[in-house]
Amino acid sequence: MKSRRVVIVGAGFGGLQAAQSLTDSGADVLLIDRNNYHTFVPLLYQVATGQLEPEYIAYPIRTILRRFSFLQNKPNVQFLMAEVEQIDFSAQTVETDRCVIIYDFLVLATGSRTQFLGVPGASEYAFSMRTLEEAIALRNQIFSCFEQAIQESDSSRRQQLLTFTIVGGGPTGVEMAGAFVEMLRGHLRRDYPTLLKQVRLILVQSSDRLLSDLPKKLGAYTCKRLHQLGVEVYLQTRVSLVTSESVHLQNHEVIPTATVIWTAGLEANSPPTSQEVSLAKKGKLLVHPTLQLLEQPNVYAIGDLAYIENNGKALTGVAPEALQQGVAVAGNIQRQFRGKSLKPFSYFNKGRLAIIGCYSGVGKIGAFAFTGCLAWLMWLGVHLAYLPGYRSRLLVLLTWLHTYLLGDRSVRLILSVKYINSQNRQVLPKEKLHFFPESR
Amino acid sequence: MKSRRVVIVGAGFGGLQAAQSLTDSGADVLLIDRNNYHTFVPLLYQVATGQLEPEYIAYPIRTILRRFSFLQNKPNVQFLMAEVEQIDFSAQTVETDRCVIIYDFLVLATGSRTQFLGVPGASEYAFSMRTLEEAIALRNQIFSCFEQAIQESDSSRRQQLLTFTIVGGGPTGVEMAGAFVEMLRGHLRRDYPTLLKQVRLILVQSSDRLLSDLPKKLGAYTCKRLHQLGVEVYLQTRVSLVTSESVHLQNHEVIPTATVIWTAGLEANSPPTSQEVSLAKKGKLLVHPTLQLLEQPNVYAIGDLAYIENNGKALTGVAPEALQQGVAVAGNIQRQFRGKSLKPFSYFNKGRLAIIGCYSGVGKIGAFAFTGCLAWLMWLGVHLAYLPGYRSRLLVLLTWLHTYLLGDRSVRLILSVKYINSQNRQVLPKEKLHFFPESR
Question: What is the ipTM of this complex?
Fold first, then answer.
């Protein structure tokens, strides 16, 4: 019998689902990731705003795999923690920083990374929020700004420290803005009562509405709601430059701000390959409807890495798409084992939800668009249900209840500067002041 | 009326307690710490072994202070996050990296730091465990060693990765050894079943018994219990050299080990001062029985920083000592306000507990020494009670129940290499191997 070695690169939603769907397939499966944990990316913003412990949304991959193979005598899915350095389609090898692996079938599920859209200074000074480390670094930055601001006697520098600019009006930017307001209304109000009035929260969006993947009226509702919450929303505005102390807009306005949070663009996070592959925009890999690479019948690409259309429209890169593609790719690989013809992938859209925060959200299920507290509750419920591991689910639920019933967040640690990208760190000159108001 | 500005440096057990005891004293109190959180040091080893989330044992100082001044109209205790760079007793100033503060009374409570006892290589290659960051770095190291070992085909290098050497047989070393065994018996057994038999856990102690601050028979029990748990205990053994791949003992034995955990020595973590101060051994400050510095009547030193005797014997540096000194120092400062004579500090020893792990511990209350499960339970109970914040207490309790009832630990993230001290990181040459057993 022909050997069946399936290598999956990336343990995000798509890769993990493919591995799960290949349990009991008879194939030897190897899942590779650079981390030993799966990151639940949709909740990263709650780590950055100090609501959730990082450990709640990052789950050890070995534990997840163990659950898949719970009933198996000899588990067929193995895990390798390694960085993929080169893929050679002719030799059918994946070269990592640790070892070289030969595959029969390959699933590429390496996701996306932040794209700074060529804006000067953005990659050096803006904070992105795609990994757990980046979310922790952003949390450090936010709380450090408040600690610095409370000691700052110069009012314009204090204003700069207390101005937070979010670039990008997609779901991540909107979630981040809403969660920031929740934080301001919660513990920051108590910890820094004198600073609160000075905080400016700015959301910059290039197009003429927020949440452009959703119906126009939901974007309008979101904009109105954020405005009510005190967020300054700049529509049809592009960023032209980011420095360590300001953000420059294309309309020549300069906003002094110590913190720029970049949620504006993503591009495919392709692994290096020895042979050329056909690319769509944003570096995504072109695939057949069966999810095979155009040139390589035994190589598949799924999730944010692949350019896939559904009913003539490109998929938008949300978790349900990757999950369904993980199932589809596992099915097609097993059809290839048996020499059967492959099935084209078709996406079943269960609906879309986006959370604004402060008890409001927006959603669209089928033709039905809705807003407000119902969408907010549904968002929380759906994300709770999809979290891996009952323990994480319980802890996240407890934390949310604690936050929304008592208005407090406990995760406000500023960890050491080693955690913060040194380039991003703004070193202010030492100020000589007498801390106590009265003179000697 | 004379101004009463009290500055407390360090928000450990002693400093926080002094601040709490000065609430409602009428003085303006400023608490300074380099972190914005209080670290519950006795549970750091549970972070390093992946049992507790770092956030559970680190509590925001501003939240703690808010609780102290719950009933006050205008809180008299302020917080400053800053690094102290110089103290000038003549000018009565504390210079930090942020600002200069003038004090009338000063409480030094900056604790202790790891002392490597002049062993070459120890400061570069051994992991210490005195701060939250160090505990996270050690957790990364332990789990990285297992991830590397499972891919390692060379058996001697695999053995090196799976050998963990703890230097120091005090409470921290013993706790760490026991917690490591718990981890091996729990999730590591499931995640890496093939590796488990190869793990070597070594505890090196210079004197002829463990837990030398406790009665001899408790040390003997601890040694026997650790031996039962599979720990190799080396008594009367000193370390002469630590390298990135081994530890050398003074008896010329060389143990190949990728991880050396240093719990062997502490020294006072004194802030730099413009004037000389009288020092005892290990850099501790000499103080009068009233806790005042010998030369400075308005400066106090408490906790691990100060050399204090009780009944002619030096105090050993545990949390209850620092807590009681925090109360005492607040009392004496208030006596100084009123021109009253000061009281000498006297320590009330409620007893001592040390945990071994795996349901056993040792303890001594008054003349009564006891061992086993009762001591273990008491240790957990006491530490739970002293944790700041009911939320942390609840979460730690839930986590312990989860660990001991279900035998699982969820915090096994290997965060990015930025978290690990780069000097400590051992870069192994890339190995070219075929991951799947069968050949093509």
Answer: 0.85
Evaluate whether A5-34+82-114+266-337 and A122-264+351-423 have a shared fold: yes
Residues A284/A268, Cβ–Cβ less than 8 Å:
yes
pLDDT tens figures, A32-68? 999 999 999 999 999 999 888 888 899 899 989 988 8
Render pLDDT for B223-281 as a digit per residue (tens, 0 to 9): 999 999 999 999 999 999 999 999 999 999 999 999 999 999 899 999 999 999 999 99
For tokens 């590796």, the residue is B195
Q: Which candidate from B66, B136, B412 shows the least CB-CB separation from A60?
A: B412
- Cα B232 to Cα B163, B199, B223, B260: the distances in Å are 11, 11, 9, 14
B326 vs B323: CA distance, rounded Å:
5
Q: Please give the pLDDT value at position A67.
A: 84
Which residues touch A180 (CB under 8 Å, ≥6 apart)?
Answer: A49, A142, A164, A166, A201
Cα gap A15→A228, rounded to integer Å? 40
CB contact under 8 A, A63 and B413: no
Residue spans of the domains in chain A: they are 5-34+82-114+266-337, 122-264+351-423
Asked whether the beta carbons of residue B435 and residue A101 sit closer than 8 angstroms, the reply is: yes
Residues 6+ apart with CB under 8 A from B7: B29, B30, B32, B94, B101, B103, B105, B106, B107
A55 CA: distance to closest CA in chain B (Å): 6
* pTM of the predicted model as reported, rounded to 2 decimal places: 0.89
Query: Is the predicted pLDDT of residue A74 greater than 90, yes or no?
Result: no
- Span B5-34+82-114+266-337: which CATH code? 3.50.50.60
pLDDT at B430 > cutoff 90: no
Residue B429 has pLDDT above 50, yes or no: no
**The residue to which tokens 């050949």 are assigned:** B439
Of A98, A132, A435, the CB nearest to B101: A435
Least CA distance to A389: which residue of chain B? B410
Radius of gyration of chain A (CA): 23
